[in-house]
Amino acid sequence: MPLSTPSRDALFAVRYARAAHTWTDALPVGNGTRAAMCGGRPGGLRLWLNDITAWSGPASADPLAGVQDAGPEALAAGRDAIARDDLAEAERLLQRQQTSWVQAYLPLAHLDIEVAGAAARECRRELDLRTGIATLAYTAAGASIVHETWADVPSGTLVHRITADAAVAVTVTIDSLLRAARAPREVGGDVVAEWMLPVDVAPGHEHPTEPVRYDPAHGRTGAVAIRAQSGPVALTPHSTGASVPEADGRLVDDRLQLPPARTHLIVIGTATSPSLPGGPDDGRDAATRARAVLDAFTPAAPATAHEPHAAAHAALMDRCALDLPSPADAAEIDTDERVARALERPDPGLAALVFHYGRYLLAASTRDSPLPLTLQGLWNAELPGPWSCAYTTNINLQMAYWPAETTALPECHEPLLRFVERVAATTGADVARRLHGVDGWVLHHNTDPWGHAAPVGAGHGDVSWAFWPMGGVWLALHLWDRFAFGGDLDALRTRAWPVLEATARFALSWIQTDGTRAWTSPSTSPENRFVENGAVYGVGTTSTMDVALFRELASVCRDAAAALGRDDVWVDELTRVVALLPTPAVGDAGRLQEWNPPRADEDPHHRHLSHLVGLFPFAQITPERTPELAEAAAATIIARGRESSGWALAWRAAMWARLGDGEHFAEQLALSLRPSSGPAENGDSGHRGGLYPNLFSAHPPFQIDGNLGVTAAIAEALVQSHDGTLHILPALPAAWPSGSVRGLRARGGVTVDVDWAGSRARRVRLSAARPITMEVRVPGWGHRRLTLAPGDPLTIDSRETAW
């Protein structure tokens, strides 16, 4: 089928002509705090409800609870064992420094919304990425019925609207996987249900006697409040004390019964209590808080109730858009069918749809949020969720925020930055001092809203994943990224600099040196292991990732000090010590070595490519500046294999984009955009990434970093600014000969729009947020040094202007 100019629906809508049978068929909505997965079928739907504050806990007051050995003596003992090459003993000692596990993000509740007598065979479902509204439509008993669900941005509520061309009655049933605290009840015309939040939830790979543990005396509470009205009337607050009409409906056998009407508006508030660390605590219980959320939703009329939300949602989504050609039927067929057909026919527009879907998920799960998004964003229906649905900091949390700056969603970066500031000043500093006896702050590979900063593993976790004290180093660099794109000197001074200094003090305490060389110990390369003398180990010295992270930190601290006009002694000391670390080495096979000294991989196709972090997201390895290392990096990616988990496929695609290899980028991207079901490409990989029917990325199971990593990789193929030069279309694949993108952002505060045809740029428009002079490179045009001024966009047309 020939490609055509993309329709808006082909690039911004996910749609199906069938019911949702599983959670990964359902459509996600979210406003950064509250979210729902919308599963639809003829006659009604289920809404799986989530609230970013619904976590198990409270955690122990002691962040080192369960640790058997702690302090500088414990660290010295582990280092001594490694120095003796007794790696088995080193791993045993490190396991004695493990806590149990981090806490879990919880599935709060689910609502079943049924239209009485609405038996039908067919339905249509759609998620419009431009409005953030999920729709279910069907015809039953002679009536055309439409359900619309959105996570209202202005009010913070969840809203479900039912409209029909004949009066229909509706039943709403509320339930949860959590233990009930009180039965559903009516309070001031609202229906309120409350559940206990567990004080402890073990991850799925652990098997304690009580995997989900409740403590009514010390646990937290979660609540859902529902306010519903039927008919063409305005929704009215119930908690003001004024004389207002009661809701149209009543609670019967724990079900909310809404009388026949042509319009039903159901508004949902959620809350938890007491507050999580870092959040304001007004002392109110969860039910009172949930009802207060409802009062923020005051539409003029049900028919226009969505308009403020749609406008607020569009304010983020409309900043950036990618247009690529699509088959003529792309907007008509089911989205999962489109994904399947793309295996056999060209469909560049599918990449654009997934690009927009990633931006949608980022905005929906982290805008104005009190916490960072989880491994599944805001959405989770399991207890426990996959990997506790918590925060994994050895790649996944960082990757989830990669598109925030480049695709014009900088405010969505803020929840992560606030979290990093808090942990660096509290639990991270405590754990660094008491567990390791070092300065600054530390964060290992798992964390949660309580700021868990110590290694997990319950005393038996494999140190290849359980011991990794570099999470704080990587996350601290996100504060610099925010400045590199946004240019806020005050934020760099007051927010970023204290974290960078604390991180540098950790580095200076952690790196060992004899004055002529430096090394790190104990050192792991996240989740990977090596073979030595017939045994498999995960800990050694000086992983390449350690070196890359510390070098990036030193570089960022120098640049931050220069921007702020500071001459702190520790900046020079960090630069001196880091320079003594070994440079990245190329092995006999022409690949970048992961360890120093070199080690033999246990799994040659391991999903993590941690030793290539200097290639992407950092810029220590580039084809222009370090061609030999860039060649070794390419050989390393190829040797690891094309197949992997969803997020690892995205990381590989981003790396190929950074290398300027559009064809390898396209090959890797294609694996990310295939159906999740099917055999892996090679028998050496236990993972097969791809897309679930609703376009969620499969690890498997679903992890949101796969979606957001793909969005970041596509942006990287179109615009790069990592080395002080603006690269336009640096890795454009041949399969995308024509298209356009607008609203991509570059470091230095530059916004880039590009149109291309015949695989060559035709028009480039650059807009600057602040004065800047930079080199710009465009394939086929060459390069030029340009000066940009705020409010004075520069447009270059290859057909009219000589480059």
Automatic annotation (TrEMBL):
Residues annotated as transmembrane: none
Residue ranges constituting the Glycosyl hydrolase family 95 N-terminal domain according to the UniProt record: 15-185
A molecular function (GO) term: hydrolase activity
Listed Pfam families: Glyco_hyd_65N_2, Glyco_hydro_95_C, Glyco_hydro_95_cat
InterPro entries to which the protein is assigned, alphabetical: 6-hairpin_glycosidase_sf, 6hp_glycosidase-like_sf, AFCA-like_C, Alpha-L-fucosidase, GH95_cat, GH95_N_dom
Record keywords: Hydrolase
Alpha fucosidase A-like C-terminal domain span: 720-779
Heme listed as a keyword: no
Segments forming domain Glycosyl hydrolase family 95 catalytic: 306-718
Gene3D superfamilies: 1.50.10.10
Protein name per UniProt: Glycoside hydrolase N-terminal domain-containing protein
Higher taxonomy: Bacteria, Bacillati, Actinomycetota, Actinomycetes, Micrococcales
